[in-house]
Write a structure and sequence with these properties.
Blueprint lengths: L13 E6 L2 H10 L3 E3 L8 E4 L4 E6 H7 L16 E4 L3 H13 L3 E8 L5 E6 L5 E6 L4 E2 L5 E2 L3
Protein name: VOC family protein
InterPro entries: Glyas_Bleomycin-R_OHBP_Dase, Glyas_Fos-R_dOase_dom, VOC_core
Organism: Bradyrhizobium sediminis
């Protein structure tokens, strides 16, 4: 390992989800209120502003091919990751879950008090990507829609 090279600045800039139906997934994320950017890409790829890291949608089979992993069998169970929608209050968690369900999400786990003093529930998008909707002690969401973590 060459230690003379400066370390790059670590950053997570994009989360790209493989989806089965681009049109339906684009409509779902627009219905949740995320702002689509670079819409000229049509249904080839979709990008959404999230207030921080951007969200991308890409056809499942093409994304699997791009990362050189088999696309089948598609996991129906837990995939080892979740997305999160952090909130400021328990009432906001309930409202977000209700809203997401009204836009076509599936409820995975109703909102409940957590053992760490928070409040959390889960929904899944049309391709079963799980989203946690949560208010967690010490984690704040600013007016800039960004998560602010304490030191």
């Amino acid at each position: 390992m060459n230690t003379k090279l400066p370390a790059p600045i670590p950053r997570l800039t994009m989360i790209t989800l493989g989806v089965s139906n681009m049109r339906a997934s684009i409509a779902f994320y627009e219905a949740l209120g995320f702002t689509r950017k670079l819409a000229a890409s049509g249904e080839a790829v979709a990008f959404f502003e999230t207030g921080g890291t951007a969200l991308g949608l890409f056809p499942w089979d093409l994304l699997a091919q791009d990362v050189t992993l088999p696309q089948d069998p598609r996991p129906r169970g837990f995939r080892g990751m979740t997305l999160a929608w952090n909130c400021s209050t328990a009432e906001e968690v309930d409202a977000v879950l209700d809203f997401a369900i009204s836009k076509g999400a599936s409820l995975l786990k109703p909102a409940h008090a957590t053992d760490y003093g928070g409040y959390s529930g889960y929904f899944s998008d049309p391709d079963n990507h799980p989203w946690e909707v949560v208010v967690a002690p010490g984690i704040e969401v600013g007016d800039d829609r960004r998560v602010h973590l304490p030191d």
